[in-house]
Specification:
15 helices; 3 domains; about 20% strand; globular; about 400 residues; about 40% helix; 5-stranded mixed β-sheet; alpha+beta
Length: about 400
């Protein structure tokens, strides 16, 4: 099956969908003792909403309980960190350097923006160094702002900047003429160092330097991390293009193409019903043989990784329904997948010991498919430890 690199191999979208479903552990749920491997294979679970990350893992791991995820976090086998697109993910601690260093060009944008606003390089470097030096143990945002401000000899500020439209006040650090909320300061830091979340202190998150938190910490040089991350991306999301990789990481297309070119010898071109892309050469055989053996239904939560890997999304959701799934301000709705394509959106709420699941379908579904949706809802209820389930499909 190893066709010459200049000869594109032709596959269908059904094959591509089956390949990606398998790589994301959505076609067959993995055993619970493979939780860490699943998080790696799916290239992290987006964790802006931790409950969504937990549901993403439930979709892929059989007999999972929230206690399994909590244990992995407490044992530091999983960590939460800002990685691709400077967005929070749950990732395996052993690969944290790859995820952060490999996507650090997105953070470099923040450096360039700050420099463009007239902040001298020496002040940017001083702020980054002061932050990294402070994070030798888990600190809250307020503690970080206090320590960094003290180290820089400036007065800590309190400004509006809660994110996603929030107007609450947050601790901030003046760097030249710009005052950075701590989260934005950490975005600058990601261009130079590796930081992750520590244990929450009540409702307050903490942050800590990776080498001070993760046992047997192993850093990875940036260029090597970029190449490893690209291969991890293609294993999960191939076939794909450099433009897809740029969107997924948050870097520029020029930067993505530069990294892509370094790995080009290991890629094979494919045609997917008129779309030109590439896949890892060693994945050609599996892609060619990929099949969905029976109708496959999965409930995916907000921001599920499966929905975030590509620039064009016609293969995932009909164009007329795209705004129903990919919403304003970067929100990605919970969806029902049927054989890898979106056929509905859903929501759930707890009412005492009852789980209410509402499904809004794009078109009428057959009784076997609705039965599979109901079965998945009951499976979710067991994960959420709610004994009664009410499923509404319409």
């Amino acid at each position: 099956m190893s066709a010459p690199q200049h000869t594109p191999f032709s596959v269908t979208w059904n094959q591509v969908g089956a390949f990606r479903l398998a790589r994301h552990h959505l076609s067959v749920r993995a055993p619970v003792d493979e939780l860490i491997s699943v998080v790696s294979d799916m290239t992290g679970a987006q964790a802006q909403l931790l409950s969504a990350a937990q549901t993403s893992l439930w979709s892929r791991v059989g007999d999972l309980r929230s206690a399994h995820i909590e244990e992995a976090l407490s044992q530091r086998a999983l960590v939460k960190a800002a990685c691709m697109r400077q967005t929070l993910f749950l990732v395996p601690s052993q690969h944290l350097a790859v995820f952060v260093r490999g996507s650090a060009r997105r953070a470099e944008k923040e450096i360039r923006w700050t420099r463009g606003k007239g902040v001298p390089e020496r002040l940017i470097d001083a702020a980054i160094d002061a932050t990294l030096n402070a994070l030798n143990r888990p600190l809250t945002r307020l503690e970080i702002a206090e320590r960094v401000s003290r180290a820089l000899g400036v007065q800590m500020q309190s400004i509006h900047g809660g994110g996603w439209g929030s107007r609450r006040k947050v601790a901030a650090v003046p760097v030249g003429d710009i005052t950075f909320p701590v989260v934005d300061l950490l975005h600058l830091v990601a261009a130079r160092g590796v930081v992750c979340s520590g244990p929450d202190r009540g409702t307050e998150p903490t942050f800590v330097r990776a080498d001070a938190w993760i046992p047997q910490w192993q850093d990875v040089p940036k260029e090597q991390a970029e190449e490893i991350l690209l291969r991890m991306y293609l294993r999960a999301f191939g076939p794909a293009t450099a433009a897809d990789f740029a969107l997924w990481t948050g870097m520029t297309l020029r930067e993505a193409r530069e990294i892509w070119a370094r790995g080009q010898a290991g890629f094979a071109p494919v045609h997917v019903q008129g779309w030109r892309a590439e896949v890892l050469r060693e994945d050609l055989d599996e892609l060619a043989g990929a099949r969905v053996e029976q109708p496959l239904v999965r409930l995916l939560p907000y921001f599920d990784s499966y929905l975030l890997g590509h620039r064009d999304r016609d293969h995932l959701v009909p164009e007329e329904r795209r705004s129903t799934v990919y919403r304003a301000q970067g929100w990605v709705a919970p969806v029902v997948l049927l054989d890898g394509r979106v056929v509905a959106v859903w929501e759930h709420a707890r009412q005492a010991d009852r789980l209410l699941v509402k499904v809004a379908t794009f078109e009428p579904l057959s009784p076997p498919i609705t039965g599979s949706i109901i079965a998945e809802a009951h499976h979710l209820a067991r994960f959420l430890e709610t004994p009664d389930v009410d499923v509404q499909i319409g």
